[in-house]
Amino acid sequence: MNATPAEAQERTGGCLCGRIRFTVIGPAIYPHTCHCRHCQKLGGAPVMWWAGFERVTWTGESEPTWFETFPGEAKRGFCPTCGARIAAIDSDIPELGINVTALDDTSGADLVPVNASFRDNAVHWLPPVPDTQPTTAS
Ligand SMILES: [Zn+2]
Ligand SMILES: [Zn+2]
Q1: Ligand 2 is a single-atom ion; what residues have CB below 5 A from it?
Q2: Cβ atoms < 10 Å from Cβ of 30
Q3: Which residues form a coiled coil (predicted)?
Q4: DSSP string of 71-92?
Q5: For residue 76, how far is its CA from the centre of ligand 1 (angstroms)?
Q6: Sequence ranges of the domains in the chain
Q7: What class has domain 8-121?
Q8: CB 3.0-4.6 Å disulfide test: which of 13, 56, 95, 126 passes with 102?
Q9: pLDDT digits (tens), the chain, 138 positions
Q10: C-beta of residue 132 within 8 angstroms of C-beta of residue 114
Q11: Ligand nearest 32 Cα, by number?
C-alpha cells in the first residue's frame, strides 16, 4: 500500500506549559468546530476546534489528565498544570479527537473545519462555519 503524503504526515503539538507533548500521524479526520455546552464550559470560549487522528503518541513528561464528560462514553484530556485542552476520547469513534489549537502548526489545509456541531447553540455574534462536507445525498 502506498502512503500518500497526507497519510505519512507527522504533526506535533502540546499544551501551553510544555509538560504534555504529542505526535499525530496521518490525515486529519472530520475537522470541525463545536458549539456544545461542554466545549464552551471546558474551553472558556464560544467554540472549540477539533480534528480526529487515528494515531497519537504522547511524547512529553506527562499524559493528559482525563475528565469524563459522559462517564464510560466520553472524556476530555487536559494539562493539570496549565489547563490547556488537548484531546477527547469518544467511545463511538475509533479516532482520538485533538483540539486543533494544541497543534504546533494549525495552518494545514486539511484542518479547516468542514462543519460545525451544535450550531444551534452558537453565540449569536459568532456565526458557525458553513457545512462544506461532501454530500452523499443524490
Ligand atoms: Zn501544560
Ligand atoms: Zn462540543
Answers
A1: 34, 36, 39
A2: 15
A3: none
A4: TTTEEEEE-TTT--EEEEEETT
A5: 14
A6: 8-121
A7: mainly beta
A8: 13
A9: 445 555 568 999 999 999 999 999 999 999 999 999 999 999 999 999 999 999 999 999 999 999 999 999 999 999 999 999 999 999 998 999 999 999 999 999 999 999 999 999 999 999 999 999 977 765
A10: yes
A11: 2
Q: Which backbone phi and psi does 132 adopt, to 5 degrees? A: -115, 20
C-alpha grid cell for residue 32? 470541525
How many Å lie between the centroid of ligand 2 and the Cα of residue 27?
21
Amino acid at 23: T
* pTM greater than 0.85 (yes/no): yes
Cell of 99: 483540539
From CA 37, how far away is CA 11, in angstroms rounded? 29
CA of 9 to the centre of ligand 2 (A): 26
Comparing C-alpha atoms, which of 112, 122, 68 is closest to residue 90? 68
- Measured on CA atoms in the order 73, 47, 49, 16, is the torsion positive or negative? negative
